[in-house]
Amino acid sequence: NRQSNESRGALIVLEGLDRSGKTSQSNRLLSFLEGLGFSVEAWRFPDRNTCVGGMISSYLANKSELDDHTIHLLFSANRWEKRSLMESKLKSGTTLIVDRYSYSGVAFSSAKGLDIEWCKAPEIGLLAPDLVLYLDIPPEKAAERGGYGSERYEQLEFQQKVSQQYHILRDPTWQIVDARLPMEDVEKQLKELVLDSVTACRKGKSLSQLWL
Ligand code: NYM
């Protein structure tokens, strides 16, 4: 067992447009780290298994209507309700691979026209990721990938706006990976980045909070 009481797990976030390959890659990263003997879990936001998550899920399925501000705050609340569990997992040495996080929250809501600073505010105090992996794909290419589903937001024109918002949100600490490459090539790059981050956290890198 490679865990020790002192070493914490890494908070690793995958971001990108719909159909950029986040879910496939997070599954691959999970198997990779498990194979190396690390304690690791794959999470995703929205977490549709909570009460708040149920409201989000119904909104995304077009089964309910909510004001843009209201749904924004529900997405944020859905992260807040998992914050303490997230912190205890990380502190006990479990690495979390998280499919979407606060950046999705801000990119999707600000793409509707909400003020970006207003969108960021409810995220302040959530745990900051140790690593943000951005799967970069032009919206047109993503749209070609077997088409979108029928959920809200899964339309080319809206995804183009989301892509612009992600560009504004990006900071130099993000790792941008070309998601047009073959899956295996993307996977190889992600594995290296993830291993570096897990190693840095085990060596004592401290946990911080959004937004820095
Ligand atoms: N989404 C996701 C948001 O609008 N705000 C958020 O905070 C998060 C986490 O939900 N189109 C959007 C992005 C997706 C949709 O995500 C559902 P997924 O990964 O398809 O389950």
Automatic annotation (TrEMBL):
Query: From what superkingdom does this record's organism come?
Result: Eukaryota
Provide the GO biological process annotations. dTDP biosynthetic process; dTTP biosynthetic process; dUDP biosynthetic process
Q: Which UniProt keywords apply?
A: ATP-binding, Kinase, Nucleotide biosynthesis, Nucleotide-binding, Transferase
The EC number(s) attached to this protein equal 2.7.4.9
Enzyme class name: transferase
Q: Which GO terms describe its molecular function?
A: ATP binding; dTMP kinase activity; nucleoside diphosphate kinase activity
Task: Name the pathway it acts in.
Answer: Pyrimidine metabolism; dTTP biosynthesis
Q: Does the keyword Transferase apply?
A: yes
- Asked whether the UniProt record includes rRNA processing among its keywords, one would answer no
List, alphabetically, the GO terms of the cellular component aspect: cytosol; mitochondrion; nucleus
- What are the Thymidylate kinase-like domain coordinates in residue numbering? 14-189
What family name appears in the similarity comment?
Answer: Belongs to the thymidylate kinase family.
Q: What is this protein called?
A: Thymidylate kinase
Source organism of this protein record: Aquilegia coerulea
Q: What is the lineage of its organism?
A: Eukaryota, Viridiplantae, Streptophyta, Embryophyta, Tracheophyta
